[in-house]
Amino acid sequence: MSDRQHIIEVECLYKTFEKINAVDGISFKVRKGSTTALLGGNGAGKTTTITMLLGLLIPTSGSITILGEDMLQHRYRLLHRMNFSSPYVDLPQRLSVKENLTVYGHLYRLPKLKARIAEIAEALDLSDLLDRRYGRLSAGQKTRVSLAKALLNKPELLLLDEPTASLDPDTADSIRSYLEQYQRDTGASILLASHNMAEVERMADDVIMMRQGRIVDSGAPEMLVEKYGKRSMEEVFIDIARNNEVIA
Amino acid sequence: MTTADIAFSPRRIGAVVLRHLYLMRTSWPRMIEMIYWPTVQMVLWGFISIFLQQNSSYVAQATGVLLSAVLLWDVLFRGQLGIALIFLEEIYSRNLGHLFVSPLRPGEMISSLLLLSLIRTLIGVGGATLVAIPLFHYNLFDMGLPLIAFFFNLLVMAWGIGLVIAGLLLRFGLGAEGIAWAAIFALQPICAVFYPVSTLPTWLHPVAWILPASHIFEGMRALLFQHHFDIYQLVIAGLLNIVWLSAGIIVFQRFFHAARERGLLLQVGE
Question: Who contacts A185 (Cβ-Cβ below 8 Å, separation ≥6)?
Fold first, then answer.
């Protein structure tokens, strides 16, 4: 049974690849309007979880409810209300920024597409880059374009995989500021996977810590810092990553 | 959100087509490649035809039989390659992940692939056909209305094969790239492009007759040699094509499902 307070509800989710549980029976909820960080070392199961939330990967068992609807049953209806950005998934290199955004705007069947592209380009400081080829942009510019693509349809749920990876501190800061502004303006929810603990402390209302496909702890960042008797989330992350015992 | 948002959408199909038209517009090597090989093939077989006309009673009976065969063969080849190349472009650009987290449905993806294949085939084979007119004084369009039937039947068979290959690319990534280029050539000797099915060993006849292309090329020769449009061959080809295209769609959907089960859509590549 879904409730109205949570945008994502995951129950007993498993994904098994050749007898290895990449995701091992996890359950969690993400509050509407919150930013939740999915943390864990490499191979912890974060990306597998996100790809299942996006419907790109079919779970072995378990349920995923997004916006009150079963993701496996109503994937295409829900994808209209979500979006995704990752530095590891590219956009076509030879198309200009405007062409890329136009193609994705049509895929989401957006009304007044030109106006929406102009609006998002201005907000993300991309107006001067609209006619440039995507492949000729710097890493920071590409990340902003990818984010523009992800925000084009004004998603209620935004899934971000390492949104500021390989960006300089200035660009990373402006990306975070824009995401915070977007969330304040629209009430959207964000689920982000990140290895940047400063980013997590700044943006996340809640944290889900994963290790070996399981959730080992969760809670507000400041609560976790206090619980583990550490000074920062970075230290909490290292402590959990190196501890072989499942805590919770 | 309305039901129109979630229904099968021509706008989403158009979006994928637009993405590749943008690509073609900015890349003259891609445009040249589309026309280059059909034209080279046509020129080669045009000169062979001229030679054989003077030295072979078979070709002398019907001017342009070899040129027609090579141009129609290219419909099959380009049609199949059109689908496979579009898919390869998405893999090279690492864009499949973004495409499949959009509301684009597999059926819409298939529709856009078929549309793009039609555009690429018309550009490629159409260009070569036009070059043949001044070069060899041979006009494929002289076949008249049967040419349209031949063209679309060959294209539909190409779509069936192309969708299977696109499915293989989804499932096996660039490991299946070689198959995308080579698969159709395994059928060329059997589907009676340049010679009748009767030329093949008897045990191969049943294999040839389940290929829609064999019926089309036999129909083409009947038209050129006997000036007779063999509707029977066309009907058989059409019925077989229903099976081929349906099989292509089913196989693509199966591979798409397998890719979703194995988590390949975000990482499809080598």
Answer: none
pTM, entire model:
0.85
Mark out the alpha helices in B94-211 (DSSP H runs): 96-101, 106-136, 145-172, 177-187, 205-209
Q: How far apart are CA A69 and CA A80, in angstroms?
A: 13
Where are the domains positioned within chain B? 3-262
- CA distance readout (Å), A12 to A1, A24, A182, A214: 14, 8, 31, 10
Report the distance separating Cα A84 and Cα A66, nearest Å. 14
Collapsing DSSP to helix, strand or coil, A29 comes out as strand
Our measurement of the distance from residue B122's CA atom to the centroid of its chain's CA atoms, rounded to an integer in Å, reads 10
Residues in chain B closer than 8 A to A149 (CB atoms): 98
- Mean pLDDT (chain B) is 88
Distance in angstroms (rounded) separating the CA atoms of residues B211 and B229: 19
Task: Say how many residues make up chain A.
Answer: 248
Chain A interface residues (partner B, CB cutoff 8 A): 15, 17, 47-48, 51, 54-58, 76-77, 79-84, 86, 88-96, 99, 102-109, 133, 149
Distance CA B113, CA B162 (A): 9
- What is the spatial distance between Cα A147 and Cα A86, in angstroms, rounded to a whole number? 8
| Cα–Cα distance measured from residue B15 to residue A194, given in angstroms and rounded to the nearest whole number | 31
Averaged pLDDT for residues A168-189: 91
Look at the block and give the residue holding tokens 């790809």.
Answer: A51
The residue length of chain B stands at 270
Q: What is the ipTM of this complex?
A: 0.85
Enumerate domains of chain A plus CATH numbers.
1-81+157-248 (3.40.50.300), 90-154 (no CATH)
